[in-house]
Amino acid sequence: MSVDLATVKRVARLARIAVSEEEADRIVGELNGILGFVEQLSEVDVDGVEAMTSVTPMAMKKRIDAVTDGNKAADIVANAPVTDQNFFLVPKVVE
Amino acid sequence: MTDLIRLTIAEAREKLLAKEIKATELTEAYVSAIEAANDKINAYVKVTPEKALQMAEVSDARIASGKAGALEGIPLGIKDLFGTEGIHTQACSHILDGFKPHYESTVTQNLWNDGAVMLGKLNMDEFAMGSSNETSYYGPVINPWRAKGSNQQLVPGGSSGGSAAAVAAFLCAGATATDTGGSIRQPAAFTGTVGIKPTYGRCSRWGVVAFASSLDQAGPIARDVRDAAILLKSMASVDAKDTTSVDLPVPDYEASLGQSLKGMKIGIPNEYRVDGMPEEIETLWQQGIAWLKDAGAEIVDISLPHTKYALPAYYIVAPAEASSNLARYDGVRYGLRLDGKDIVDLYEKTRAAGFGKEVKRRIMIGTYVLSAGYYDAYYLRAQKVRTLIKRDFELAFHAGVDAILTPATPSSAFGVADEDLASDPVKMYLNDIFTVTVNMAGLPGIAVPAGLDHKGLPLGLQLIGKPFEEETLFRTAHVIEQAAGRFSPDKWW
Fold this sequence. Notes:
heterodimer, A: mainly alpha, two-stranded antiparallel ribbon, 3 helices, about 5% strand, flat, B: alpha/beta, Amidase signature (AS) enzymes, 11-stranded mixed sheet, 17 helices, EC 6.3.5.- (chain A), Aspartyl/glutamyl-tRNA(Asn/Gln) amidotransferase subunit C (chain A), transferase (chain A), asparaginyl-tRNA synthase (glutamine-hydrolyzing) activity (chain A), ATP binding (chain A)
């Protein structure tokens, strides 16, 4: 499989990365290089093989359903570029 | 002062406990070495001398009162991927500009609890994506090694290039690193240092900036096998904050050094021979086999038939997980923000400006392989291939093999800004061809220096072990180290 310019633009949009025309052109070639490389996986017979979900044979640990952390809003917003009274600020999203 | 920085961790530990040297002296020696060398090596992106001296003073007091921890007063460098409270933690990415976490990663906390001293944060490929440390926002790291009679700048490998270069250039006694596809072992091999990626789950991933969560694992880079064993003992722990961390006691790895290899079976996989691999790497491999045989190990040929599919499967799984993990860098919660006409425009502009080329490339690949209609063909198939890769290893171990010996990398260190590699991302990816299988199967792997090539550059061998049998790797790597000797670059910096 390979990608064209329209697909690259669509993927960039999905990934929320702005790309210029020129960059998109370059990325078409790069992605096709990588997709060409991974194409060899199609020669592997995977019939009846289970997809890996965990490399270590262990059951997912579950913790008790209790509040163990919190009350640190100021810490959480401390690294945000724009905040107001412990809220993250973004451009208006609802009219 | 120069001799102080040349002490291994084990040697420094002895001198500190015997009160022959002070932790503050040792730290000061490293701080001045960094000051003199960092312009040329670029291993550190942030040096923290005040913090280091404060920590060293506490160490001296603890030693004086007989309360020394396992790493008391040992100055370490920390890869920029580890969250360090109140200190520069930016995964060497522009998008995390100014980020200072309000928490400490579990691995670094374990090191501080044992008395280690932090010298600063080490350069790396952006978000650990790279094999040459050239994708860092802070510029490439320069390998302290140079080819004989040449001034050409070489890469230290990646992504833990700063960690490996700092250890090789005596700019820290040891360093933390992380390995998603070879990021500890490949730079260790390129710099004549020892690097171990432990079994997935051995070290907590909590507080470490995530790249590909099912593959990422922290480990040390050190000057010798003993130092790597000492560091891993402190770094490893079970952690309630990482549900994939394993509840197994952490052994005294150092105790496994010097144990005999008699009765041990070492597997040699035929599939780890690739086209264009220099003859000297094959020779080095044969030399490694001979050393282990001399030490009493039995050598057996094994087959790991799905080896060649590990790298292509990795380049689906790792970017897929990265595209999801890196979705959080949105210009809202931390780091860089570029204004936009609406929120989507803000996201797109911020991410376009904040991520470097390689990171964008991998996010795009990951987004594509996870997108509607392609998931089964790419991601699901790759995860099935991963099961087969792991099964290859399980069959070998089931047949009685204790550890597997392979070359660590298909070449020695290459030049900075190599045009051939820069123009073809896949060529750069091939650096990890011998290391990536280990991450795909969640196994432990160690790279140990084994010799120099005709250019006088270090080459490493890799040992792969059974899950949670890092002790076997330390024991076997130590035998190689004893036979090969240790390698240090001639100082030019």
